Amino acid sequence: MWNKDSQSWNAFCSGLLTIGNPLDREDTAEFELLIMAKDHGHPQRSATTTLSVNVFDVNDNAPQFDKSVYNATVRENEPPHSAVITIHATDSDAGTSRVSPLLQSPSLYLSFAWSI
Fold it and tell me: Are 98 and 91 within 8 A, CB to CB?
């Protein structure tokens, strides 16, 4: 079983490899394990191989804004599509779990210069 403190794995005699605790791709995305097989002969013989384990990500983290509140001012005579503010959010999940901008104010049109 996998020990989270030492990040060690144990294989059973059957060849089954298990983990005892959940994995988190944001902590460790890949493990390189050295696997050794030993026989019971005299003299004892052994062989080794390397096992690469890639941890696939799931959407387990919410996006995080750089600030909890953003403030901006704009003149009333600014032309449409003028830049007002850049809001930055990140998400530590990989792949399709990326951040997309969403404005929840139907009475106001803003065009985001979105940075991920």
Answer: yes
Would residue 74 count as lying in a domain?
yes
For the stretch 12-29, pLDDT in tens is 777 788 887 778 888 888
Q: Is 30 inside any structural domain?
A: yes
Computed over its alpha carbons, how large is the radius of gyration of the chain?
25
Q: Which domain holds residue 83?
A: 58-116
Q: In angstroms, rounded to a whole number, what is the distance separating the alpha carbons of residues 7 and 95?
A: 25
Domain count, the chain: 2
- Reported as a pLDDT band with limits 50, 70 and 90, residue 5 is very low
